[in-house]
Write a structure and sequence with these properties.
There is one protein chain. The protein is an alpha/beta fold and 198 residues long. The chain has one domain (6-197): Rossmann fold (3-Layer(aba) Sandwich), CATH 3.40.50. The chain contains four helices and seven strands; from the N terminus they run αββββαβαββα. The N and C termini lie far apart (63 Å). The protein binds S-adenosylmethionine.
C-alpha cells in the first residue's frame, strides 16, 4: 500500500466551484500554480448544460457546507442574478459565497464592463456589477462612515472580502475580479487608536 503524501492530501482537499457554468468548463481566471481544476463542482440553472448541481443562484443559501471551497468561479453569470438596486440580495449573495469559501478562499468573477454593449444588451441581464460596487464588500471601506457620505451596509452585511485583482479588459469590455474571503481581519490601526483614546 502506498502512503498518500501531504502534498497529494492537500490537493485532494482543494475544492473548486464553477457557477453558471453553461457548456464551458474552461478555467478562465487562474491563480499562480492553480491552472487546472481540483475537485470541481459545476452548477447551473439549466439541466441541459449537465452541471453537477442544478440550482437557481437566486435561491439562497446555496446547497454547500460552510468553509468548503478554495475557489469559486463565476464567469458571465452574476449579471443574471438579483435586480439592480436590490442591495439586500447583493449582500446576501456575497455573504453566502463568503460562507462556503474557506478562510482566504477566493471568488473569481468576470462580468460585462459598464461600457460593454452587452451590459444591458442581453435581455437576461438584471444588474451591473461595477468596480465601485466591489468596494462595498470590504469591511475596511466602512471606516469612512461619518467622514464621507458612503452608505453604511454593516447592519445587513457582516462578511468581508479583500479585492486582490480588479481589472477591466477594454478589448472585450469585461471586468475581471478576484476577491479573497477574509474571515479574521487584523485590527485596524485607525480603529485601535480610537478605542485606546476613548
Ligand atoms: C452568459 S452564460 C455564461 C456561461 C459560461 N459561464 C460561459 O462563460 O461561457 C450564463 C450562464 O448562467 C446560467 N444562469 C443564468 N441565471 C442563472 C441562475 N439564476 N442560476 C444559475 N445559473 C444561471 C445560464 O444558464 C448560463 O449557463
Amino acid at each position: 500500500m502506498t502512503k498518500t503524501s501531504k502534498k497529494e492530501k492537500t490537493k485532494d482537499q482543494y475544492r473548486e466551484l464553477l457557477i453558471g457554468c453553461g457548456t464551458r468548463r474552461e478555467k478562465i481566471i487562474q491563480l499562480k500554480d492553480k491552472t487546472e481544476w481540483h475537485n470541481l463542482t459545476t452548477l447551473d440553472i439549466m439541466e441541459s448544460h449537465n452541471p453537477d448541481v442544478v440550482w437557481d443562484l437566486n435561491n439562497l443559501p446555496l446547497p454547500f457546507k460552510d468553509n468548503y471551497f478554495d475557489e469559486i468561479h463565476a464567469y458571465e453569470v452574476l449579471e443574471h442574478c438579483g435586480q439592480q438596486g436590490d442591495y439586500k440580495f447583493f449582500f446576501n449573495q456575497f455573504s453566502d459565497f463568503w460562507r462556503i469559501l474557506k478562510p482566504k478562499g477566493v471568488i473569481c468573477i468576470t462580468v460585462p464592463a459598464k461600457a460593454s454593449m452587452w451590459v444591458w444588451g442581453d435581455p437576461g441581464h438584471t444588474r451591473v456589477i461595477a468596480e465601485e460596487t466591489v468596494a462595498f464588500l470590504s469591511q475596511k471601506i466602512y471606516d469612512q462612515v461619518g467622514d464621507s457620505p458612503i452608505t453604511d451596509y454593516r447592519e445587513i452585511y457582516k462578511a468581508d472580502f479583500e479585492a486582490i485583482y480588479v481589472r477591466t479588459n477594454y478589448e472585450i469590455q469585461q471586468l475581471h475580479l478576484v476577491l479573497e474571503a477574509i474571515k479574521k481581519r487584523k485590527p485596524n490601526v485607525r480603529n485601535t487608536r480610537k478605542t485606546k483614546r476613548s
